[in-house]
Every structure is written in structure tokens, then in C-alpha cells.
Write a structure and sequence with these properties.
The chain is an alpha/beta fold and about 400 residues long. It is built from twelve helices and 20 strands. Helix 1 packs parallel to helix 3, helix 1 packs across helix 6 and helix 7 runs parallel beside helix 9. It is globular and about 60 Å long.
């Protein structure tokens, strides 16, 4: 199935954003580790969080997390310390995504895990047991989800855990988010230089309510940037958020979008000057790269993005996916060093009726749909992928005047 997306002429509306899946998924793990009697409030209603909820409420020792990478990493670490025998698997793509670094780290700390398929990838067989803990060294260039998964179970280990991160550390805001939430549940870490130390300690049950998702807000910033005159109120966002993607407010200043913080969220408006070329290192907020790439191309703003090394192991190879799909719209992107993506202004003739592949990646669908403001006949293939993080995305677009026409393949 495809959606043909037709944009309205003007935009002005109030949007209740979905809640953060990054915070929701961490809160579910911390809630379980603290044996909390409280339910997590305002949980995200997305696929990634729903599979976590299902894992915690099911009596089945076989866990299938579908395409949810965060759930795979977090639950692998969590189940490694829970007495019992478990299997954890996922979609075909998930069974190709690497997890060896996390498994090796867990095994070195006392976990009992074996591969049931391709070595280094899910599915896994886990025999949950008390973990010794101790000291480990991890590359700072690995996915922050590996690090967060280990950090959250660290206080349950007999010796606690000391992680030394070797080299440059990517996605620092996500590690800070994890440590900040652990502190809210009563466990504080010591982070000095590249070493994080956590002592054996018990989490304290606490009522917890999840805030709105700054990653989801990025698509509304994109809509504002691509429009001639737009104003949106985005509910549930906080200026002092622990979410790294709250950086989107600063990034879109260079693309002419202002942000006003209110008691209930933010008001964003299209105004101001637009930069002649956009430079940014996305090492701390890689999930914003697709949004900014499409926005810059549609606005005719050449760009040079770096720090994209984690994009190749996401739901798809996002660097290659951006190159392929933006080429359909007439933009020739080039990449280098598995971490740099550039558009120098080179154009080719756009396809007459481009069909954007989504590659089972929610962010491809949501980043490309706003391109309909600048181009007619944009079609989004397999639009249902948005349920991974933002189930109401298409409904929210319709609420501001977009026409969504369903077309069968």
C-alpha cells in the first residue's frame, strides 16, 4: 500500500505529540528493576514500547520484539539477570542487526547467553542468573543502547560495574538520559573522563510520567521550515528536557524556524534568515539526520553532515536509503567514511511520480512526507511503519489540512 500525500497551502494548529519512546522504554526497565508498584504514566503508544510492555506482562518465556532495536538491547541485558530460561528474537531485519558487542560484555560479567541463528545476531537463548559485574572496556563508538542496557542493570550486579569507554564517545545525550533517569529511581553514577562507575545498590520505586517526544517534534519543525507561513503549538515538550533530540530547536534556527517555550509546550513559527550551507555533526542526535537531509534538499540548502556512523545499523542503512530516495526527488547525495553525507547542490531530473521506499524504517516515512509541500505526487510506500514511534502521524497531518489518499500497490 502507498499513501499519496497532498499538502495544504497554510498551516496553523495545535498538536499533541506522542510521548517519548526513549524515555518510555527506559522507564519500563527501571520500573521493573525497582519492583515498583506504580505503573509508568503517559507511556508511548508505539510499536517499540508496546513490545516492551508485552514482554513484561506475558507469561511466555519466548519474547519476539519485532523490529524494535531498543527493546532487543534493553531486554537482552534485563533478562540476563532474571532467573529463568528465555529466548528473544525479532523481525528478519532484526536477525541481521549486530548484538555481539552487548552479548560479549554481558558474558564477561557472568551472563549465560548463546546464539540460536547467525553468530553475533539475534535470536538469543538466555539463562538468567545473578551477574558478577566488575570492569569492562567498550568502544565509545558503539551504539549508546548497548551502554544504556548495561548501565541500567549495573546496580543489580554483585560487584557493580565500571565501564571505560575507549575513544570518542557518540550519542552522549542518550547515555546522560539513562543516567539521569537512573538517578530519578535512586541510583547515582560517577562519570569521570571516559569512565562510568556504578556501585551495587537497590533502585527505589517512584511514580513516573513520560514527557512528549522531541524526535517526533522534528517533523513539525520540518513542516514549518518548508512552508511559506506556518505556526504550530506542540504540546508536552520541555525546554530543559533530558532528550538529546531537543537540540532540534537550535538546529532549525538556521532554517528559519523560531521556538517559543510555554508552560504547556512550544510554539514554532516560520520566520528568520536561512543559512547558505548547513554544517552539523550528528554524533549526539543521529535520529535527526533524515529530517534535516530532506529539509535542506527541499529548501535548496547544500549541507555537510558528519557523525553518522550509527546510521548504517539502524532499521535500515539510513545513509544509503537517503541517497536512493532523495535521488528520486532530483538530489544527488554523496557519502564517505561511513559517517559523512553531503549534498553540494547537484541536481538531476526528478521522477514524475516518485514512490518513496520506507525500508521498514519509520523515520523514512515521516521525514519524506513533508516534501509534499514542495513537490506534487509524492507517494510513501508502506506508510504503516510510523507505528514504530508515532502511530498518529498521518492523522495529525490530516488535522492540519493534508490530504492522504490510499493507493494499492
Amino acid at each position: 500500500m502507498q499513501y499519496k500525500v497532498i499538502a495544504p497551502k497554510e498551516f496553523k494548529n495545535t498538536i499533541q505529540l506522542p510521548t517519548s519512546k526513549s524515555i518510555s522504554n527506559r522507564a519500563l526497565i527501571l520500573n521493573a528493576l525497582s519492583n515498583s508498584p506504580y505503573e509508568v504514566g503517559n507511556l508511548s503508544d508505539c510499536d517499540d514500547t508496546n513490545v516492551m510492555v508485552a514482554a513484561f506482562t506475558s507469561q511466555d518465556n519466548h519474547v519476539n520484539i519485532g523490529a524494535a532495536g531498543t527493546a532487543m538491547r534493553f531486554l537482552t541485558a534485563y533478562l540476563a539477570h532474571v532467573p529463568g530460561e528465555w529466548t528473544i528474537t525479532g523481525s528478519e531485519r532484526m536477525q541481521q542487526r549486530p548484538i555481539k558487542i552487548l552479548v560479549d560484555a554481558l558474558v564477561s560479567l557472568g551472563a549465560k547467553i548463546e546464539y540460536l541463528g547467525k553468530p553475533g545476531c539475534p535470536p538469543l537463548k538466555i539463562r538468567g542468573t545473578a551477574l558478577d559485574g566488575g570492569k569492562i572496556i567498550l568502544s565509545g563508538g558503539v551504539s549508546s543502547q548497548y551502554i544504556s542496557a548495561l548501565l541500567m542493570i549495573a546496580p543489580t550486579m554483585t560487584k557493580g560495574l565500571t565501564i571505560t569507554l575507549d575513544g570518542d564517545v557518540i550519542s552522549i545525550p542518550y547515555i546522560k538520559l539513562t543516567l539521569g533517569m537512573m538517578a530519578q529511581y535512586g541510583v547515582k553514577a560517577q562519570w569521570e573522563g571516559n569512565t562510568i562507575k556504578i556501585y551495587p545498590e537497590s533502585y527505589k520505586p517512584t511514580p513516573y510520567t513520560v514527557e512528549a517526544d522531541w524526535s517526533a517534534a522534528s517533523y513539525w519543525y520540518e513542516l514549518a521550515a518548508l512552508s511559506d507561513n506556518a505556526e504550530f503549538e506542540l504540546k508536552g515538550l520541555f525546554q530543559n528536557s533530558m532528550q538529546g533530540d531537543s537540540r532540534v530547536a537550535q538546529l532549525f534556527l538556521d532554517l528559519g524556524v523560531s521556538t517559543e517555550y510555554t508552560d504547556s509546550g512550544v510554539i514554532i513559527k516560520k520566520k528568520g534568515k536561512v543559512t547558505k550551507k548547513f554544517f552539523h555533526n550528528f554524533v549526539s542526535e543521529p535520529d535527526l539526520a533524515q529530517t534535516l537531509a530532506v529539509t535542506c534538499c527541499m529548501m535548496g540548502v547544500p549541507f555537510l553532515f558528519s557523525g553518522l556512523q550509527t546510521l548504517k545499523i539502524k532499521e535500515t542503512d539510513r545513509i544509503e536509503a537517503l541517497k536512493q530516495e532523495l535521488y528520486k526527488l532530483g538530489y544527488v547525495l554523496r557519502d564517505s567514511n561511513d559517517s559523512v553525507l553531503e549534498w553540494d547542490g547537484e541536481r538531476v531530473e526528478a521522477e514524475d511520480k516518485p514512490v518513496i521506499k520506507t525500508y521498514e524504517d519509520h523515520r523514512m516515512a515521516m521525514a519524506f512526507a513533508p516534501a509534499a509541500i514542495k513537490m506534487q505526487n509524492i507517494h510513501i510506500q508502506h506508510p504503516g511503519v510510523v507505528t514504530k514511534s508515532y502511530p498518529s502521524y498521518w492523522i495529525d497531518l490530516q488535522s492540519i489540512g493534508f490530504e492522504i489518499e490510499e493507493i494499492k500497490d
